[in-house]
Design goal:
The chain is built from eight helices and ten strands. By secondary structure, the protein is an alpha+beta fold. The radius of gyration is 21 Å and the shape is globular. Strand 5 and strand 6 form a beta hairpin. The chain has a six-stranded antiparallel β-sheet. A two-stranded antiparallel ribbon has the order 1-2. A two-stranded antiparallel ribbon has the order 3-10. It starts with 10 loop residues before the first helix and ends in a 5-residue tail after the last strand.
Length: 241
């Protein structure tokens, strides 16, 4: 008879998971400080070493920030810190450049079958569609469409919505959502008429199409985007670990 192995979750991981769930729930908002380690360890009924291991992992994953002599605070998503973990385009000399976004349009549309599947929503439900281009070194390099479920936006007035340069900072600041991970597919395509106009390429110029689905820390789909990239002067670079 084969004995079934029982999965065991280390105590520090249980503490880590609970702290993260409380951050998601808004018990500790971005920029606010957690109780000191003694008090927090006492709350969880664990040793200070166990608590510290949980805090160290959350700090390494950018959810927390440790301040010498002050304590531990929930990290605030800023433009660059939220962008570069998910932005893999760089110049041919491997220098990363902060992209500048220019919004073309923001509107409520009906989800096609494809987009509904990507967002895990229902076909023909209302979603937010953002069209924008992104510049690198003052060159228009990316033609992009972003789709967001209205459930993500909550009570935000779509007619008065203002999108900053980085959407991931917007999600945290306005929606209380932190992007935790993303999946991408990449393929080579030829440009359509819109790409030719916005990227200034010819009809036979190959583009790199990147489709990305982004998730929050609870693995909920937050957005789906399609980015068409003119990689003539730029390349896609990612470190595999």
């Amino acid at each position: 008879m084969i004995k079934k192995k029982i999965a065991y979750t280390p105590l520090y991981e249980q503490v880590k998971k609970d702290i993260l769930s409380r951050i998601i729930a808004g018990d500790w908002t971005p920029g606010s400080f957690l109780p000191n380690e003694f008090a927090l360890a006492d709350q969880y009924g664990v040793s200070q070493g166990t608590l510290r291991k949980a805090l160290n992992e959350l700090t390494a994953e950018k959810y927390l920030v440790r301040y010498q002599g002050k304590g531990t605070a929930v990290a605030v998503v800023e433009e660059d810190s939220s962008l570069f973990p998910f932005f893999f385009l760089c110049r041919k000399d491997e220098k990363h450049i902060s992209p500048v976004s220019q919004i073309q349009s923001i509107e409520k549309v009906k989800a096609s079958k494809k987009i509904a599947l990507a967002l895990k929503s229902k076909e023909n439900c209302d979603i937010l569609q953002i069209r924008r281009v992104r510049l690198l070194d003052q060159e228009t390099v990316i033609n992009e469409i972003v789709y967001i479920s209205l459930e993500v936006l909550g009570k935000i007035d779509i007619d008065e919505i203002e999108i900053p340069n980085t959407l991931y900072a917007f999600y945290q600041d306005k929606c209380g959502i932190r992007i935790h991970k993303a999946t991408e597919t990449i393929e080579a395509i030829l440009p359509d008429a819109d790409d030719i106009k916005k990227l200034g390429v010819t009809k036979n110029h190959p583009l790199m199409k990147i489709c990305r689905t982004s998730f929050d820390v609870a693995d909920n789909v937050i957005e789906y985007r399609e980015s068409k990239v003119n990689s003539e002067h730029f390349m896609y670079k990612i470190d595999l670990k």
